[in-house]
Amino acid sequence: MEFPSKLIENAVGELAKLPGVGKKTALRLALHLLKAETDTTASLAEALAKMRFEIRYCDTCHNISDTAECSICANQLRDQSTVCVVSDIRDVIAIENTAQYQGTYHVLGGVISPIEGIGPGDLTIDSLVERVTKDGSEIREVILAISPTMEGDTTAFYLSRKLRDIPQVHVSTIARGIPMGGELEYADEITLGRSIVERQRQAR
Questions:
Q1: What is the DSSP string of 63-80?
Q2: Which residue has the higher pLDDT, 192 or 90?
Q3: Range of the domain at 109
Q4: Element counts in the chain: helices (H) and strands (E)
Q5: Nearest 5°: phi and psi at 89?
Q6: CATH number assigned to the domain comprising residue 168
Q7: pLDDT tens, 142-157?
Q8: What pLDDT, on a 0 to 100 scale, did the predictor assign at position 83?
Q9: Which helix (H) or strand (E) holds 90?
Q10: Do residues 75 and 104 share a domain?
């Protein structure tokens, strides 16, 4: 693809690095921004820079946050006795959109995948165990809401083994309303909400 300007070419090249954005789409976006008001383009650039350099991760649950504690963990109206364990921040957003869950979360940051070189030590599993076992912990149920893929099931099995000997905590999994091999973020809200409501307790 030939470009009349090196600046446009550079912009298109960067935009095309985004997932799902090809060169043609990137060119349309770049030309749109070029025609837009200067303030519009400047605001977009500033928002992206602030997101990248100023965003934090919650010290407790590892969700994205603007402060040391995310809005969910800080909300005392949430059920502090229940923790929903997910692999990715996008899963938190998906579950929140169902409006069926009022507990807290724990974001693992991925799933166990030996093929990709990701082991338990690369996830926030130790942080979860520490949350559950620390003195004064209110946690009584841990819900494993991990996508039902081979790697997801491996991660859920590993977590259930790690948590099964903690006497005050019950481990449950979301009901299989989510199809095998599916990703939580792509599930419709009704199916995902039903999966949360009809979660199943793990046998010790």
A1: -EESSSS-HHHH-TTSEE
A2: 90
A3: 57-173
A4: 8, 7
A5: -60, -35
A6: 3.40.1360.10
A7: 999 998 889 999 999 9
A8: 97
A9: helix 89-96
A10: yes
- Average pLDDT of every residue of the chain: 90
A 10 A CB-CB count for 4 gives 7
Kindly write down the DSSP assignment for every residue of 141-197, as one continuous string. Answer: EEEE---SSHHHHHHHHHHHHHHTT-TT-EEEE--TTSPTT--GGGS-HHHHHHHHH
Q: Which amino acid belongs to residue 34?
A: L
The answer to whether position 32 is within a domain reads: yes
C-alpha distances (whole Å) from 115 to each of 58, 111, 118, 161 are 29, 11, 8, 22
pLDDT higher than 80, residue 72: yes
Beta-bridged to residue 152, according to DSSP, are none
In this structure, the dihedral spanned by the alpha carbons of residues 181, 184, 186 and 187, taken in order and rounded to 10 degrees, is 90
User: Residue 59's closest CA among 116, 106, 27?
Assistant: 106
Do 92 and 83 form a contact (C-beta atoms < 8 A)? no
Residue the block writes with tokens 């997910």? 86
Helix (H) / strand (E) containing 18: none
What angle, rounded to 10 degrees, do the helices at 6-15 and 23-35 form? Answer: 120
Taken in order 92, 188, 144, 148, is the CA torsion positive or negative? negative
